[in-house]
Specification:
Length: about 300
Amino acid sequence: MNSIEIRELTKEYGRTRAVDHLTFDVLPGRVTGFLGPNGAGKSTTMRLLLGLDRVTSGTATIGGARFTDFPDPLHRVGALLDAQAAHGGRTARDHLRFLAAANRIPVRRVEEVLEQAGIASAAKRRIKTFSLGMRQRLGIAAALLGDPAVLLLDEPTNGLDPEGIIWIRELMRGLAAEGRTVLVSSHLMSETAALADHLVVLGQGRLLADSSMEEFIEARSTPKVRLRTSDPVRLRAALARDGFEMASADDGRWTVEGIRAEQLGGMAAREGIPVLELSDERASLERAYLDLTADHAQFAATH
Ligand SMILES: Nc1ncnc2c1ncn2[C@@H]1O[C@H](COP(=O)(O)OP(=O)(O)OP(=O)(O)O)[C@@H](O)[C@H]1O
């Protein structure tokens, strides 16, 4: 009932197709990373979900209904889209009180979310004096105000220091563990890998991947082992019989592509060849993501 359903969603701005027949679901109880290079259509998808922009075709719904049809939207969905949007002349507390009053949210929630976002001590300061990281925290406090079951966070780690990034990771995991639906956009694979359970990857408005983080890593890492042996001649010959090639690495070790440590270790044991060190190597996730999105980024850059 709190899933996000995107169906054949398309958005055109003049001749630019920002979102192109996009279909995917975001399920509760886990953190879904929404990835894609700049301009891939992540923010547009979130804006369409929140009814801030009109769809060209297709639908974007939450639990089967459109955001704009909810009588109490902030109780259902909390969003962080543009952390700069808050009125700079107000204090953080007043900003949240104003939001609470406008949405019939009990005022005690203001103190709770100030605390939760780690900005209680800055509650009386004017927002214009806030650093980017503090504005992000205030934006997150505002998103949490209505205790919503669904959270949409667009690049929430922007401007946060390493401590802030760890904080937001824990926060999102906690919210997902409570059974909420959490969609977090980022253009950084490394950051997303550390916080998401599931991935939706966009390139040029289209869906490139929709899978668990585990499957994404598994599907995109070519097996490769690195090893040390006291008998490279016999090992090379044994591997060659099975169609594998042993290549020398610059640190005196050897690498073999297309095989896993378990398989190679078993084979060497059967042949009685001493293996002194043996480990699996994986393609970096960052590399896999860049390869996946590269064509789309290039295409976007030339249009
Ligand atoms: N209001 C608008 N008017 C015209 N074009 C727009 C508008 N909003 C977005 N676009 C275009 O739509 C495409 C998708 O942009 P969008 O901001 O959704 O991407 P994004 O994946 O969120 O990227 P970023 O990481 O840079 O925020 C881009 O080509 C962008 O220039």
